[in-house]
Amino acid sequence: MKFARFSIEGKHIKGVIHDGVIKEISGDLFGDWKYTGDEYCANDVKWLSPLVPNQIIGIGANYVARMEDLPRELPEIPVFFFKPTSSVIGPEEQIVIPEGIDRVKFESELAM
User: Fold this and answer.
1) Residue 20 backbone class (left: φ over 0; alpha: ψ -120 to 50; beta: rest)
2) What's the pLDDT tens digit per position in 7-66?
3) pTM value?
4) What are the DSSP E strand ranges found in 1-112?
5) Domains (ranges, CATH) in the chain?
């Protein structure tokens, strides 16, 4: 079963994707939910981020692509950092780089 968030005609909707059709649901994705009876064609919607986070906590220095990128000395306890919830975007949404930033480091993140 594939859950999704999308918008159509300015309305944000949750649904279940099945064979190119999204069946709208109401309720809690992680608890009790039910089908509303409304259906949408997957080609007609704008996909949104899967969830709307209330906070994002990252762990620094947990992965490097090359051994030479590994810090000489690892911290005794993990380094945690926060990211703004606005950093979560949906597929095909534009990445906004704030004015005055002249260097951007690309990273992909795993969310759980």
Assistant:
1) left
2) 999 999 999 999 989 999 999 888 999 999 999 999 999 999 888 889 988 887 667 778
3) 0.70
4) 2-8, 11-18, 21-27, 33-41, 46-47, 56-60, 79-83
5) 2-47 (2.30.30.370)
